[in-house]
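Ticket #4471: structure output looks truncated?

Reporter: J.K.
Steps to reproduce: submitted the chain below (323 residues) through the standard prediction queue, then opened the result file.
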Amino acid sequence: MKILVTGGAGFIGSFMTKKLLEKGMSVVVVDNLKRGHRSSVDSQAKFIEGDLLDKKFVNNLFQENTFDGVIHFAGLISMGESMENPGMYFEGNVAPTINLLEAMREKKVNNFIFSSTAGVYGNPIQVPIPESHQKNPTNPYGESKWIDERIMRWYDEIFGIKYTVLRYFNASGAALDGSLGENHEPETHIIPLAIKSALGNTQFNLFGTDYETIDGTCVRDYIHVLDLVEAHILALNSLSNGGKSATYNVGTGKGYSNKQIIEEVEKVSGKKIELVKSDRRPGDADTLIADSTKIQTELGFTPIHSNLDTIVESAWKWHSRNE
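Returned output as attached by the reporter:
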Protein backbone atom coordinates (compact mmCIF):
# COMPACT_ATOMS: atom_id res chain seq x y z
CA MET A 1 0.00 0.00 0.00
CA LYS A 2 1.08 3.57 -0.68
CA ILE A 3 -0.02 6.03 1.98
CA LEU A 4 0.06 9.83 2.03
CA VAL A 5 0.91 11.18 5.48
CA THR A 6 0.24 14.88 5.81
CA GLY A 7 2.07 16.68 8.59
CA GLY A 8 4.51 13.79 8.64
CA ALA A 9 7.34 15.97 9.96
CA GLY A 10 5.36 16.66 13.12
CA PHE A 11 5.16 14.74 16.39
CA ILE A 12 2.52 12.10 15.66
CA GLY A 13 3.08 12.13 11.90
CA SER A 14 6.74 11.18 12.25
CA PHE A 15 5.84 8.21 14.47
CA MET A 16 3.10 7.21 12.02
CA THR A 17 5.52 7.29 9.09
CA LYS A 18 7.96 5.06 10.95
CA LYS A 19 5.20 2.58 11.85
CA LEU A 20 3.86 2.38 8.29
CA LEU A 21 7.37 1.72 6.95
CA GLU A 22 7.85 -1.03 9.55
CA LYS A 23 4.63 -2.59 8.21
CA GLY A 24 6.16 -2.67 4.72
CA MET A 25 4.11 0.15 3.24
CA SER A 26 5.30 2.90 0.91
CA VAL A 27 4.97 6.37 2.46
CA VAL A 28 4.87 9.88 1.00
CA VAL A 29 5.20 12.61 3.61
CA VAL A 30 3.95 16.13 2.93
CA ASP A 31 4.75 18.96 5.32
CA ASN A 32 5.23 22.72 4.97
CA LEU A 33 7.87 22.60 7.75
CA LYS A 34 6.46 25.71 9.42
CA ARG A 35 6.13 23.73 12.64
CA GLY A 36 7.43 20.32 11.65
CA HIS A 37 11.04 19.17 11.45
CA ARG A 38 12.60 17.63 8.34
CA SER A 39 14.99 15.66 10.55
CA SER A 40 12.03 13.81 12.11
CA VAL A 41 11.02 12.22 8.80
CA ASP A 42 12.30 8.67 8.31
CA SER A 43 14.77 8.52 5.43
CA GLN A 44 12.88 5.63 3.83
CA ALA A 45 9.86 7.84 3.20
CA LYS A 46 9.51 10.13 0.20
CA PHE A 47 9.37 13.70 1.48
CA ILE A 48 7.65 16.56 -0.35
CA GLU A 49 7.66 20.06 1.07
CA GLY A 50 4.46 21.92 0.37
CA ASP A 51 1.42 23.65 1.82
CA LEU A 52 -2.00 22.01 1.74
CA LEU A 53 -3.58 25.45 1.64
CA ASP A 54 -2.28 25.62 -1.94
CA LYS A 55 -4.92 23.83 -3.97
CA LYS A 56 -2.68 23.63 -7.04
CA PHE A 57 0.02 21.93 -4.97
CA VAL A 58 -2.48 19.39 -3.65
CA ASN A 59 -3.84 18.65 -7.11
CA ASN A 60 -0.32 18.17 -8.51
CA LEU A 61 0.51 15.89 -5.59
CA PHE A 62 -2.34 13.57 -6.53
CA GLN A 63 -1.56 13.84 -10.23
CA GLU A 64 2.04 12.73 -9.68
CA ASN A 65 1.37 9.99 -7.10
CA THR A 66 -1.09 7.15 -6.69
CA PHE A 67 -2.30 6.64 -3.13
CA ASP A 68 -4.26 3.87 -1.45
CA GLY A 69 -5.10 6.06 1.51
CA VAL A 70 -4.49 9.37 3.26
CA ILE A 71 -3.68 9.91 6.92
CA HIS A 72 -4.21 13.60 7.64
CA PHE A 73 -2.24 15.00 10.59
CA ALA A 74 -1.35 18.43 9.19
CA GLY A 75 -2.95 21.28 11.09
CA LEU A 76 -2.75 23.70 13.98
CA ILE A 77 -3.18 22.28 17.48
CA SER A 78 -3.07 24.97 20.17
CA MET A 79 -6.34 25.78 21.94
CA GLY A 80 -4.90 28.94 23.45
CA GLU A 81 -3.49 30.18 20.16
CA SER A 82 -6.84 29.56 18.47
CA MET A 83 -8.50 31.93 20.94
CA GLU A 84 -6.00 34.62 19.93
CA ASN A 85 -6.13 33.99 16.18
CA PRO A 86 -9.33 32.13 15.24
CA GLY A 87 -9.11 32.99 11.54
CA MET A 88 -5.76 31.28 11.23
CA TYR A 89 -7.26 28.12 12.75
CA PHE A 90 -10.37 28.01 10.60
CA GLU A 91 -8.29 28.55 7.47
CA GLY A 92 -5.41 26.29 8.49
CA ASN A 93 -7.52 23.37 9.70
CA VAL A 94 -10.52 23.42 7.37
CA ALA A 95 -9.29 24.49 3.92
CA PRO A 96 -6.56 21.78 3.69
CA THR A 97 -9.12 19.09 4.52
CA ILE A 98 -11.38 20.29 1.71
CA ASN A 99 -8.45 20.44 -0.72
CA LEU A 100 -7.46 16.87 0.14
CA LEU A 101 -11.00 15.52 -0.12
CA GLU A 102 -11.48 17.22 -3.48
CA ALA A 103 -8.25 15.71 -4.82
CA MET A 104 -9.24 12.30 -3.42
CA ARG A 105 -12.64 12.57 -5.12
CA GLU A 106 -10.99 13.38 -8.42
CA LYS A 107 -8.54 10.47 -8.19
CA LYS A 108 -10.97 8.06 -6.52
CA VAL A 109 -8.89 7.61 -3.37
CA ASN A 110 -11.47 6.42 -0.86
CA ASN A 111 -9.68 5.81 2.45
CA PHE A 112 -9.20 8.85 4.73
CA ILE A 113 -8.00 8.85 8.34
CA PHE A 114 -8.37 12.12 10.18
CA SER A 115 -6.75 13.48 13.33
CA SER A 116 -9.45 15.04 15.44
CA THR A 117 -9.61 15.99 19.09
CA ALA A 118 -11.53 15.59 22.32
CA GLY A 119 -11.88 19.34 22.06
CA VAL A 120 -14.97 18.85 19.89
CA TYR A 121 -16.91 17.95 23.05
CA GLY A 122 -16.21 21.10 25.05
CA ASN A 123 -16.98 20.88 28.76
CA PRO A 124 -18.53 17.42 29.04
CA ILE A 125 -21.81 16.68 30.73
CA GLN A 126 -20.90 12.98 30.86
CA VAL A 127 -17.54 11.50 31.90
CA PRO A 128 -16.06 9.29 30.52
CA ILE A 129 -17.08 10.89 27.23
CA PRO A 130 -18.69 8.66 24.56
CA GLU A 131 -18.49 9.49 20.86
CA SER A 132 -22.22 10.31 20.91
CA HIS A 133 -21.73 13.10 23.44
CA GLN A 134 -23.00 16.53 22.35
CA LYS A 135 -20.47 18.64 20.47
CA ASN A 136 -19.90 22.04 22.04
CA PRO A 137 -16.30 23.19 21.45
CA THR A 138 -15.00 25.87 23.81
CA ASN A 139 -12.38 27.24 21.40
CA PRO A 140 -11.86 27.70 17.63
CA TYR A 141 -9.39 24.78 17.51
CA GLY A 142 -12.07 22.33 18.63
CA GLU A 143 -14.65 24.02 16.41
CA SER A 144 -12.41 23.75 13.34
CA LYS A 145 -12.01 20.02 13.88
CA TRP A 146 -15.75 19.57 14.35
CA ILE A 147 -16.34 21.42 11.07
CA ASP A 148 -13.89 19.03 9.37
CA GLU A 149 -15.73 16.01 10.76
CA ARG A 150 -19.03 17.22 9.34
CA ILE A 151 -17.46 17.94 5.97
CA MET A 152 -16.16 14.36 5.78
CA ARG A 153 -19.63 12.96 6.39
CA TRP A 154 -20.90 14.68 3.25
CA TYR A 155 -17.97 13.49 1.14
CA ASP A 156 -18.83 9.95 2.19
CA GLU A 157 -22.54 10.37 1.52
CA ILE A 158 -22.07 12.05 -1.86
CA PHE A 159 -18.82 10.55 -3.18
CA GLY A 160 -18.29 7.38 -1.14
CA ILE A 161 -15.02 8.48 0.47
CA LYS A 162 -14.77 6.35 3.60
CA TYR A 163 -13.16 7.91 6.64
CA THR A 164 -12.10 7.16 10.17
CA VAL A 165 -12.10 10.05 12.62
CA LEU A 166 -9.83 9.54 15.61
CA ARG A 167 -10.51 11.94 18.47
CA TYR A 168 -7.28 12.17 20.43
CA PHE A 169 -7.18 12.57 24.17
CA ASN A 170 -3.75 14.20 24.73
CA ALA A 171 -1.09 12.49 22.67
CA SER A 172 2.10 12.22 24.71
CA GLY A 173 5.30 10.30 25.34
CA ALA A 174 8.20 9.47 23.04
CA ALA A 175 10.04 6.51 21.54
CA LEU A 176 10.98 4.14 24.35
CA ASP A 177 14.66 4.45 23.45
CA GLY A 178 14.47 8.25 23.32
CA SER A 179 15.22 8.39 19.58
CA LEU A 180 12.10 10.34 18.57
CA GLY A 181 9.90 12.68 20.55
CA GLU A 182 7.66 15.72 20.85
CA ASN A 183 9.17 18.91 19.48
CA HIS A 184 6.52 21.57 18.93
CA GLU A 185 7.27 25.22 18.30
CA PRO A 186 5.62 26.86 20.11
CA GLU A 187 5.20 24.14 22.73
CA THR A 188 1.89 24.21 24.60
CA HIS A 189 1.60 20.70 26.05
CA ILE A 190 2.08 20.23 29.76
CA ILE A 191 4.42 17.23 29.84
CA PRO A 192 7.17 18.67 27.59
CA LEU A 193 6.77 22.08 29.22
CA ALA A 194 7.16 20.59 32.70
CA ILE A 195 10.19 18.59 31.56
CA LYS A 196 11.73 21.74 30.07
CA SER A 197 11.24 23.49 33.43
CA ALA A 198 12.92 20.61 35.26
CA LEU A 199 15.83 20.53 32.83
CA GLY A 200 16.33 24.28 32.86
CA ASN A 201 15.49 24.90 36.51
CA THR A 202 12.91 27.45 35.40
CA GLN A 203 9.49 28.32 36.77
CA PHE A 204 6.44 26.49 35.48
CA ASN A 205 3.17 28.34 34.84
CA LEU A 206 0.27 26.31 36.20
CA PHE A 207 -2.73 27.64 34.31
CA GLY A 208 -5.81 27.55 36.50
CA THR A 209 -6.20 26.10 39.99
CA ASP A 210 -9.94 26.66 40.42
CA TYR A 211 -11.37 24.04 38.07
CA GLU A 212 -14.05 21.67 39.32
CA THR A 213 -11.66 18.73 39.65
CA ILE A 214 -9.97 16.71 42.38
CA ASP A 215 -7.27 19.31 43.05
CA GLY A 216 -8.47 22.36 41.14
CA THR A 217 -6.34 21.76 38.04
CA CYS A 218 -7.43 20.41 34.64
CA VAL A 219 -7.81 16.64 34.29
CA ARG A 220 -6.87 14.95 31.03
CA ASP A 221 -6.68 11.45 29.54
CA TYR A 222 -3.17 10.81 28.14
CA ILE A 223 -2.47 8.39 25.29
CA HIS A 224 1.08 7.36 24.41
CA VAL A 225 2.03 8.20 20.83
CA LEU A 226 3.04 4.56 20.19
CA ASP A 227 -0.46 3.43 21.11
CA LEU A 228 -1.97 6.24 19.10
CA VAL A 229 -0.25 5.26 15.85
CA GLU A 230 -1.32 1.66 16.44
CA ALA A 231 -4.92 2.92 16.48
CA HIS A 232 -4.29 4.43 13.03
CA ILE A 233 -2.97 1.09 11.73
CA LEU A 234 -6.14 -0.63 12.95
CA ALA A 235 -8.27 2.06 11.31
CA LEU A 236 -6.36 1.77 8.03
CA ASN A 237 -6.76 -2.00 8.02
CA SER A 238 -10.49 -1.64 8.62
CA LEU A 239 -10.98 0.84 5.77
CA SER A 240 -8.77 -1.18 3.41
CA ASN A 241 -10.94 -4.22 4.06
CA GLY A 242 -14.14 -2.40 3.15
CA GLY A 243 -15.03 -1.00 6.55
CA LYS A 244 -17.61 1.73 6.93
CA SER A 245 -16.88 5.29 7.99
CA ALA A 246 -16.57 5.58 11.75
CA THR A 247 -15.54 7.88 14.57
CA TYR A 248 -13.57 6.76 17.61
CA ASN A 249 -12.20 8.21 20.81
CA VAL A 250 -8.56 7.28 21.40
CA GLY A 251 -7.76 7.39 25.09
CA THR A 252 -7.42 5.17 28.14
CA GLY A 253 -10.46 6.03 30.24
CA LYS A 254 -8.24 7.31 33.06
CA GLY A 255 -7.48 10.94 33.82
CA TYR A 256 -4.61 12.76 35.50
CA SER A 257 -4.66 16.31 36.82
CA ASN A 258 -2.04 18.90 35.92
CA LYS A 259 -0.69 18.70 39.45
CA GLN A 260 -0.35 14.92 39.14
CA ILE A 261 1.57 15.39 35.90
CA ILE A 262 3.97 17.81 37.62
CA GLU A 263 4.49 15.34 40.47
CA GLU A 264 5.28 12.54 38.00
CA VAL A 265 7.80 14.71 36.14
CA GLU A 266 9.41 15.58 39.48
CA LYS A 267 9.61 11.88 40.36
CA VAL A 268 11.16 10.84 37.03
CA SER A 269 13.56 13.79 36.85
CA GLY A 270 14.49 13.87 40.53
CA LYS A 271 14.04 17.64 40.44
CA LYS A 272 11.62 19.99 42.17
CA ILE A 273 9.66 22.27 39.82
CA GLU A 274 8.87 25.78 41.01
CA LEU A 275 5.22 26.47 40.26
CA VAL A 276 3.71 29.85 39.42
CA LYS A 277 -0.06 29.81 39.65
CA SER A 278 -1.49 31.64 36.64
CA ASP A 279 -4.97 32.41 35.36
CA ARG A 280 -6.89 29.84 33.36
CA ARG A 281 -6.20 29.62 29.66
CA PRO A 282 -9.30 30.72 27.72
CA GLY A 283 -11.20 27.76 26.32
CA ASP A 284 -9.80 25.03 28.58
CA ALA A 285 -12.33 22.43 29.74
CA ASP A 286 -12.30 21.07 33.30
CA THR A 287 -12.13 17.33 32.62
CA LEU A 288 -11.68 15.34 29.41
CA ILE A 289 -11.59 11.56 29.82
CA ALA A 290 -12.38 9.15 26.99
CA ASP A 291 -14.85 6.36 26.83
CA SER A 292 -12.83 4.19 24.43
CA THR A 293 -15.16 1.20 24.50
CA LYS A 294 -16.09 1.60 20.84
CA ILE A 295 -12.55 1.45 19.39
CA GLN A 296 -11.68 -1.42 21.71
CA THR A 297 -14.75 -3.39 20.66
CA GLU A 298 -14.83 -2.62 16.93
CA LEU A 299 -11.10 -2.39 16.10
CA GLY A 300 -9.56 -4.40 18.93
CA PHE A 301 -7.55 -1.45 20.21
CA THR A 302 -5.66 -2.01 23.47
CA PRO A 303 -3.21 0.65 24.69
CA ILE A 304 -0.07 -0.93 26.16
CA HIS A 305 2.26 2.03 26.65
CA SER A 306 -0.15 4.62 28.08
CA ASN A 307 0.52 4.35 31.79
CA LEU A 308 1.77 7.64 33.19
CA ASP A 309 5.18 6.22 34.18
CA THR A 310 5.99 5.11 30.63
CA ILE A 311 4.68 8.32 29.10
CA VAL A 312 6.77 10.61 31.30
CA GLU A 313 9.87 8.38 31.38
CA SER A 314 10.00 8.12 27.59
CA ALA A 315 9.40 11.85 27.18
CA TRP A 316 12.09 12.63 29.75
CA LYS A 317 14.55 10.40 27.92
CA TRP A 318 13.99 12.22 24.63
CA HIS A 319 13.98 15.77 26.03
CA SER A 320 16.99 15.23 28.25
CA ARG A 321 18.97 14.28 25.12
CA ASN A 322 17.67 17.07 22.92
CA GLU A 323 17.28 20.21 25.04
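Triage note (M.O.): checked the attachment and the full C-alpha coordinate line is present. The longest helix spans residues 86-107.
Status: closed, working as intended.
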